[in-house]
Amino acid sequence: MLAMTLSPELDRNGAAFAFPVGDLISESLLDRRLRTATRRLLQAREHIFFDGDPKDHIYKVEKGAVCLYKTLPDGRRQIVDFAYPGDLIGLSTLENHVFSAQAIALTRLRCLPAGLLEEMAKNDPRVGVQLYRALSDQLLSAHDLLLTVGQRNATERLAALLMALSRRNDRGGADPARIALPMTRADIADFLSLTIETVSRTFTKLRQGGIIDLAHSSLVVIRDRRALGRLAAGEAERI
């Protein structure tokens, strides 16, 4: 993903990197600096930065959610990622931001001067590992988004998004079957390259098919995770 998730120093198979045990159980320099960094509170639809702004800070999401997007020359918006609590945004080797970042709910951030990041990476190898993982996640996210908008139909696109959010809940210790959606239907449409009407119809199809329930517009309850996963992978008949 374009937003980096801070996580324990584990590889994707669950094995620890070869750091001494004392290093593994302690915070990295980046973690410590972010924990005491300046806080910023944003209302829904308030911007953190715009495309082209100087990259002065990196930000950790503590509460709420953020969308990262690009405005096309004709005024259309393409959301490229969402950031949630624990994610870092604003990471780049460029001097200016290449996307805009906007809170989509009441959001609290930690703000760290961008110039400190390279210094911390030099002084703490765990920071380098975190940044390496961030680049890997960004590449995987970009590939998945390309596949989603290029090959998947509307049902598969929405199923893939819901499965990704379900897995995120599972990793964070939350109920993978109950997905809180901080984003609007318009946000989902701009992320999946669909119309709002198509997103709404697809939610209805999944509900009528017994795959999900909609407790309300911002809460999805997964009733058949296996079926949802098959749809996301393009392995099921279209509904």
What does this structure look like?
- It is a single chain.
- The chain is α+β, with helices and mostly antiparallel strands.
- The protein has two domains: 4-142, Jelly Rolls, CATH 2.60.120; 152-232, Orthogonal Bundle (Arc Repressor Mutant, subunit A).
- The chain has helices at residues 21-24, 29-35, 115-123, 125-151, 154-171, 185-192, 196-208, 225-232; strands at 4-5, 38-42, 47-49, 57-63, 66-71, 77-83, 87-89, 100-103, 107-113, 178-180, 212-216, 219-222.
- It is globular.
- The chain starts with a strand and ends in a 7-residue tail after the last helix.
- Mean pLDDT is 83; it is low at 6-25.
What is the secondary structure topology, with strand pairs?
Blueprint: E1 4-5, H1 21-24, H2 29-35, E2 38-42, E3 47-49, E4 57-63, E5 66-71, E6 77-83, E7 87-89, E8 100-103, E9 107-113, H3 115-123, H4 125-151, H5 154-171, E10 178-180, H6 185-192, H7 196-208, E11 212-216, E12 219-222, H8 225-232
Antiparallel strand pairs: 1-7, 2-9, 3-8, 4-7, 4-9, 5-6, 5-8, 10-12, 11-12
Helix pairs in contact: 3-4, 5-8, 6-7
